[in-house]
Write a structure and sequence with these properties.
With 731 residues, the protein is an alpha/beta fold. Helices cover 34% and strands 17% of the residues. It has 27 helices and 24 strands. α9 packs antiparallel against α10, α19 crosses α20 and α21 packs antiparallel against α27. The protein is globular.
Length: 731
């Protein structure tokens, strides 16, 4: 059991020395200063303590909580199940009246110290935690939040932390069904009137607290911001920005209140903080500056221009200038002259600068090998596991397979290493991509990880060939066959996208920037593709790069020009503009079959032969692209969904996927309809009685029944009959 619990390692019976002169580790046990103490406990009360090791600093995690029964257990589990194994865990409870203490007591043997008593609010509770923290580094984890499994391990297995007094990381913000990742950015003087790096993504060395003291209890909502401003303004502390996803941050805390009263209180405290740092400001000025982060560029410039003659302090002038520059660099911001007479800073495309820094990978030691590249972040990690697992199931040839995963924050890398199962012919490598393509245009389904495939020309420039697969694919054939397709002098191979065969998609109306029109108009007018080139427009889900035939430096230069623009189809448009007609080899659709056949009307095809081809391939595709995602409740019974579910149930991600399915269903009746449990395969195929009836009543085995049965557990034998019926009608 110990090996799986991060807080049960490196325990000592030696009592460490506390120092009441410091903010951190004043006490071994918190003194009973009043009569409100309900309980205390943990490893310390049993004479068990922790120390830093030479190559493994002790990290103190502090959680403050009051009436947090809904979230505290998941919070605790995220700490004690950490990959990093030198953790001291302290919980300060503010006299909870619900089941919070029962949950804490359940894990008392894994917590270093906990107590429950009345306090004046979260910042007094945080200060109590600091006074008990003996670690070199201190991280405050909200009771609503969770640390990612590999978060601390990735930070403290990297020597970069040794240079830092303040470590700033990435945070996933979760607001109901929406979530997005905030990555660390360079800090400048605008932090005084804007917002600092997120507190849940920040780790401080103990010397920062010992020098500056703890959190001010004067504020109830913004004391973490005020503390960060003290750290920044002092100027002696070193910052390290790490692109590590550390925290899943639930937007339900005190500072995240959305009522008018909550917002007004938050803004009032921001005014107080700004006034503290800029005492020369009037009430009206602090009122405006407290809200300036949420103001438009026009409003800021208009306000700032009024005070051109007023002698603000140099610090506030610089803060405003920096904020205006940031606003000007936001998408669709107005271009205008700065209101103060200082040199205009040209906007730099940091994304392109970062991409240019990508270094080529070392070529595999053997020429006779298969090279496959995939990309994913932590959101698509479960589906990536399915793709890689299906790929390995089909390996037949006695050659080495090198699988490179372009990593945008994958948390459980061990799950992928476990797939190899000591097979010396299979090699999996993770390539850290978190700091690249950060400012790339995103949409609902397309995230930054989709752009990682654009780095293939940088990473694999010394290779001969590379296969790229999307993380939502399912492989049904040995990838060796695709890798060795004869392309002659062609440079890239891909299957035609839906735009080449689907009428409704061509006629679909889109609004994108200044463009308004059909998708077909977009390809002609915005991308400026000829009719012949549109016929060759390829999907970027499955690609074969014939690197040895590509003038890599020329293509990189062209791609960097394209990265300055935004596109409706994102990275896919960029790749299509990168290669002309003579450079493209068209892959058979069997290598990139979209699982939409049963949802696609027969009349929706441009040519008859395309209909026949598409439905013929539907019987035995070689790679399936899940255009209809089985992990979304509306598509959980889509074409080939059964393959996904049979695979995901064997993965470490199964419960996570099932919970997501349940959360997508708001009605209890819908939950019952899909009959999802956490311990058995979801019974997502609701045609059981019809299957039985069809088998024993051959006369009822009609097209209608075939259509419904296609999505049943008997789909494979039924599939051929169903498509045979379609072929007959088509012919």
């Amino acid at each position: 059991m110990k090996q799986n619990i991060s807080t049960l390692h490196n325990i000592s019976r030696k009592i460490p020395k506390a120092d009441v002169a410091n903010a951190c580790f004043k006490y071994i046990y918190y003194p009973k200063l009043n009569n409100s103490r309900k309980t205390e406990g943990g490893l310390r009360t049993k004479g068990k303590f922790k120390y830093s090791l030479f190559d493994k600093p002790l990290v103190t995690v502090i959680t403050v909580v009051r009436n947090g029964q809904k979230t505290i257990e998941n919070c605790i589990l995220s700490v004690i199940r950490q990959k990093y194994d030198n953790i001291e865990y302290i919980i300060i409870d503010g006299d909870s009246g619900d089941n919070t203490l029962k949950i804490i007591s359940k894990y008392r043997d894994y917590i270093d110290y906990y107590l429950s008593e009345k306090d004046s609010g979260i910042y007094e509770a945080m200060n109590k935690g600091l006074s008990l923290a003996s670690g070199d580094y201190i991280y405050i984890l909200n009771a609503d939040d969770q640390i990612t499994h590999y978060g601390l391990y990735e930070i403290f297995s990297n020597n970069n932390y040794k240079k830092a007094d303040v470590i700033i990381t990435s945070v996933r913000m979760i607001d109901g069904e929406k979530n997005y990742i905030v990555v660390p950015e360079a800090i400048d003087e605008s932090v005084y009137i804007s917002i600092p790096p997120l507190h849940p993504g920040t780790i401080y060395h103990k010397k920062v607290y010992n020098f500056l003291g703890g959190y001010s209890t004067q504020y109830k909502r913004v004391s973490d911001w005020e503390f960060f401003l003290r750290v920044y303004s002092h100027g002696k502390f070193k910052f390290e920005f790490l692109y590590v996803l550390l925290n899943n941050f639930l937007l339900t805390g005190v500072s995240s209140g959305k009522t008018k009263e909550d917002i007004d209180r938050h803004l009032h405290e921001r005014e107080m903080v700004i006034k503290h740092f800029f005492r020369e400001l009037s009430h009206n000025e602090t009122n405006f500056l407290a809200r300036v982060h949420w103001k438009s560029l026009d409003e800021i410039i208009s306000y700032f221009s009024k005070y051109e003659e007023k002698k603000f302090s140099e610090k506030i002038v610089i803060s405003l200038k920096k904020l205006i520059i940031k606003k000007m660099e936001e998408p669709f911001a107005d271009e205008r002259t700065m209101p103060y007479p200082f040199k205009k800073i040209e906007k730099k495309n940091e994304m392109i600068d970062d991409v240019r820094k990508i270094l080529p990978l070392a070529k595999p030691p053997k020429d006779n090998c298969i090279v496959v590249c995939l990309a994913s972040d932590e959101n698509y990690e479960p589906h990536l596991w399915v793709t890689v697992s299906s790929l390995l199931d089909e390996v037949r040839m006695n050659v080495d397979y090198y699988i490179y995963i372009l990593d945008g924050g994958i948390e459980n890398k061990q799950a992928f290493y476990d797939l190899i199962n000591k097979n010396k012919k299979i090699h999996i490598h993770f390539v850290d991509m978190k700091k690249y393509f950060i400012s790339a245009l995103e949409s609902r389904h397309i995230k930054k990880a989709a752009y990682y495939r654009l780095a293939i020309l940088y990473l694999f420039k010394n290779f001969n060939r590379v296969i790229y697969l999307d993380a939502d694919s399912y492989v049904l054939s040995d990838i060796y066959e695709l890798y060795n397709i004869p392309m002659q002098e062609k440079q890239i191979a891909g299957s035609r996208d839906s735009i080449t065969f689907q009428k409704s998609l061509r006629e679909y109306h889109i609004e994108f920037g200044d463009f308004s029109g059909t998708r077909l108009d977009y390809y002609k007018k915005y991308l400026k593709l000829s009719d012949n080139r549109i016929k060759l427009y390829f999907s970027s889900g499955v690609l074969l790069f014939n690197i040895k035939n590509i003038n890599v430096e020329l293509k990189k230069k062209k791609m960097e020009e394209l990265l300055n623009r935004d596109f409706y189809c994102h990275d896919q448009d960029i790749l299509n503009l990168l290669f002309d007609e003579k450079e493209i080899f068209v892959l058979d659709r069997k290598w990139n079959y979209f699982n939409i056949a049963t949802a696609l009307p027969i009349k929706d095809y441009i040519k008859k032969e395309e209909k026949l081809n598409y439905y013929d391939i539907a019987i035995n595709p070689k790679i399936i692209s899940y255009v209809l995602k089985p992990w979304l409740i509306q598509y959980s019974n889509s074409d080939f969904a059964d393959l996904y579910w049979k695979k995901i149930i064997k993965s470490p991600y199964y419960n996570e996927i099932v919970k997501n399915i349940i959360s997508q269903s708001k009605l209890e009746s819908a939950k019952k309809a899909i009959n999802v449990t956490e311990t058995s395969l979801p019974l997502l195929y609701n045609f059981g009685s019809k299957i039985k009836f069809a088998i024993f009543s051959p006369k009822k085995f009609t097209k209608k029944y075939c259509y419904k049965l296609l999505n049943s557990p008997l789909r494979q034998p039924v599939r051929k009959i169903w498509y045979a019926i379609r072929f007959k009608k088509l012919k």
